[in-house]
Design a protein that fits this description.
The chain has 2 domains: 203 residues, Thrombin, subunit H, CATH 2.40.10; 96 residues, PDZ domain (Pdz3 Domain). Helices cover 18% and strands 37% of the residues. It has 5 helices and 18 strands. Strands 1-2-3-6-5-4 form a 6-stranded antiparallel barrel. A 6-stranded antiparallel β-barrel has the order 7-8-9-12-11-10. The radius of gyration is 22 Å and the shape is elongated.
Length: 313
């Protein structure tokens, strides 16, 4: 009896994979931009959704399941959210259907749900694999260090180059977008909820999402404490500046390598997330005061975000 039930389950999985390959597989594409290689998915006529880290450079190509490759244009990008919308000639390929998100804030998939991950790594052919949602509301660091929360962790195995590919339910409806491989072999996917759909529609209209950036490379508090002890300075929580980008707001304000950032706008800085929370509330023309420890001296440094370019720097 158990053996028969097992056969039924395997048969259902095989049938779902075959269905997805036919119904949604043609919309799963390969993406190649510069030295980056990944996957993507057709979400509207002429619109491909992928990860921002797959489009390093302006020369972007999209390869379809039949091997045809076309040049794509980057229409909108959210580097911190790791999303990008490309426009390309998608021909008669039907866009994928989104999972029903009309139930409000409920995610399109929950822990224990069966899912099917798809990829076309750099255009090397369609893959569809089976797994389950192993955890929900996971978080990871985006390409530029910001924390991305609310992700779905799933067990469907995927090859390199699968980032940006879709996660489907058994009907072939979009429930997530793969974006980050965990060291244990699991994948994290951004849930394809109503919020993501709105973000994708904005990107497809050319409305890129940019956030103010200070223009510094940072080390966490534990590294800062270790280095301060090594030179005989007292312990102090904060973010150690390891580098400053030329022409950035940080450079214009006079921040330097070795500075310890301990407060921003009156908020104590224990993690990069603390700094990002302050910066995300700022725009061009705004300013923030940083409390900086430089050696044994404490000083206040005012940083001004005076041009639009500071939001993408």
């Amino acid at each position: 009896m158990a053996e028969a039930n097992g056969s039924d389950v395997l048969g259902a999985i095989a049938a779902a994979i075959a269905h997805i390959r036919v119904v949604s597989g043609p919309a799963v594409v390969g993406v190649a931009g510069g030295r980056a290689v990944g996957s993507g998915v057709v979400v509207a006529d002429g619109v491909v959704l992928t990860n921002a880290h797959n489009v390093a450079g302006e020369d972007v190509w999209v390869t379809f399941a039949d091997g045809q490759a076309v040049r794509a244009q980057l229409k909108g990008i959210d580097p911190d959210g790791d999303l990008a919308a490309l426009t390309a000639d998608t021909g008669d390929i039907a866009p994928v259907a989104w999972a029903d998100t009309s139930a409000g804030d409920n995610p399109p998939a929950a822990a224990g749900d069966a899912v099917f991950a798809a990829a076309n790594p750099g255009g090397r052919g369609l893959r569809v694999t089976f797994g389950v949602i192993s955890a929900a509301d996971r978080a990871f660091r985006g390409p530029r260090g910001r924390r991305i929360g609310g992700s779905l962790e799933h067990t469907a195995p995927l090859p390199r180059g699968a980032s940006g590919g879709p996660v489907f339910d058994a009907e072939g409806r979009l429930v997530g977008v793969n974006t980050h491989r965990l060291g244990e072999g699991f994948y994290l996917a951004i849930p394809a909820d109503a919020e993501l759909r709105g973000r994708v529609e904005a990107l497809a209209r050319g409305e890129s999402t940019v956030r103010p950036r200070l223009g510094v490379a940072l080390a966490p508090s534990r590294v800062a404490r270790h280095l301060r002890r090594a030179v005989g300075l007292p312990d102090r929580d904060g973010l150690l500046v390891r580098g400053v980008a030329d022409g950035s707001p940080a450079a214009r304000a006079g921040l330097a390598e070795g500075d310890l950032l301990v407060e921003a706008g009156g908020r104590a800085l224990a993690t990069p997330d603390d700094l990002h929370a302050v910066l995300d509330g700022l725009g061009a023309g705004d300013r923030v005061v940083l409390r900086v420890v430089r050696g044994a001296e404490e000083l206040d440094v005012e940083v001004v975000f005076d041009t639009e370019r500071d939001e993408g720097a």
